[in-house]
Amino acid sequence: MIEVVFLGVGEAFDEKLPNTSILIRYRTGAPVTLLLDCGFTAPPEFWREEPDADILDGIWISHFHGDHCLGIPALLVRFWEEGRKKALTLLGQKGIATFMRTSLDLAYPGMYERLGFPLHFREVEPGKEVTIFGLIFQAAVTSHSQRDFALRIDAQEKSIYYSGDGKATPESISLAKGSQLIIHEAFSLEVEIPGHATVTGSIKMAKQCGTSTLALVHIQRKMRSQVIDEMQRFTKMAGSLNLMVPEPGFSITL
Predict the structure, then answer these.
(1) Does 16 fall in a domain?
(2) Does residue 252 belong to any structural domain of this protein?
(3) Which domain holds residue 232?
(4) pLDDT tens profile 10-54
(5) Spatial separation of the C-alpha atoms in residues 69 and 91, rounded to whole Å
(6) pTM score, two decimals?
(7) CA pair distance 81, 235, nearest whole angstrom
(8) 141-154 tens-digit pLDDT
(9) Nearest 5 degrees, angle CA 222-CA 196-CA 219?
(10) No. of H helices and E strands in the chain?
(11) Longest CA span, the chain
C-alpha cells in the first residue's frame, strides 16, 4: 500500500497555499516515509502531519529553486531540536550534497556539524535506476528554467510519477508511461509559459501515458480559481482519466 498526502499544492509565491510538497508512506514490508520537495512554506505542513522526528526516511529534491528545497534547513533544525538520531537520506541531481550543505550553512551557520544525526546523499541521474528503501527511483529532465528532474517511484506493482516543475519532454513522458498516479505541475490553463506545463497539456500527457489518475499542482495563484471553475470542461477532456486538483491535506491510496 502506498499513501500519498498532498502537504502543499501551491506555486512559489502563493499567499494562500503552501509550496508543493508530497508525503509518501509505503506500508508494504518495512514502513518507509518520503518527502517529495520541501520549499519555504512546506515544513509546518509536514510537522502537522508527522510530529515524529524520526519518521522521515528520505527527501527527494526535484531541483534547486527555493520553493522546492529551501524549507529543508528548517526541517533539519527542528529534527535536531526534537532529538532525532536516525539517518536521513537526501536524493536528487548531481551537486545535491554541496547545495544542501551550503543552504544549511547560510540558514543556520554551524548547524551541519551539530545536527546529531547522519545526512546521506544519493545522486539520481537520468538513465540510472537507484534502489533504496526497497523502492526504485528513476529520473528524467523536464523543460524548466533550471535543471529539473521528474521522478518515478516503483514499489512492487505500484508506481508514482512526480514532475517537479517544467513542461513534459519526450524523456519524461517515457518515464511516466504505465504509472498509476501522475502528479504534474500545471502553472497555466492552456497558454504556454516558458518552463512550465499547462492543465490541458498535462491531461494530454497523462492520457498518452495510460495513467489512471492525474493530480494537478503548482497552479499559478491567479489561475487556480479559473481551473476550479472550468473543471467540468477539463473533466470532459480527461475522459476516463481520474482528474483532480487536490487541496492541502488531501490524500489518496494506491
Answers:
(1) yes
(2) no
(3) 2-247
(4) 999 999 999 999 999 998 778 999 999 999 999 999 999 999 999
(5) 11
(6) 0.97
(7) 45
(8) 999 999 999 999 99
(9) 30
(10) 8, 14
(11) 54
